[in-house]
Amino acid sequence: MVQIKKDDGTWEDVTNKTEMEEAIMDSTKKKYTASFHTPFMTRPLVNDFGFQGVGRSVDAVLDGTYITPTSMDEITKQFIKHLKQPEHATAAGDYPTSLPTTEFKKYWLKAREHTSCYPGPLSFSTMKASTQDDITAELECVMTRIPVFAGFTPQRWRR
Question: To bridge 68 with a disulfide, which of 3, 46, 75, 77 should be the other Cys (CB 3.0-4.6 Å)?
C-alpha cells in the first residue's frame, strides 16, 4: 500500500499494483525534478556553471570576481556573493589539518552513542571508549587526519 496526497490535501490509500507503481514513479519524478526551476538550474546560471559546477565561473565565485547577470533576482545575487571563499582559507595549507588529542577526546566524549550511528563493526561506543586511553586516543586522532592530508574519504565515512 502507498498513500498519495490528493489535490484537496487529503490522503488516499492505493493498493492496486498498477496504481501503486504509477504513484511511486510520479513521486520519484517529483523528487528528482524538484530543483529544475531553481536559479542554478535555469538560464543564465546554468550556462555559466553547467550541471556539475566546475570551471571558470565557479573559480570566479570563489574568488569573489563573478559578475552576476543584471536580470538575476537580488536574493540569488546576494547568495552568490556570500559563496566567496574566505581570505584566510584561500592559500594552500591554511586549512586546519590538525586537531589536538585533547580536543579530539573532548568531541568524542560529547558523542551520544544511542542517537548516533557509525557504520561497520566499530560502534560509536567503541570510538568513545578509545578516548579513555591516551595512546589509543592519539592513534585514533592521527588516523582521522590522514584523509585530510591525503585528500580522500574512507569508504566507511561515505554513508
Answer: 77
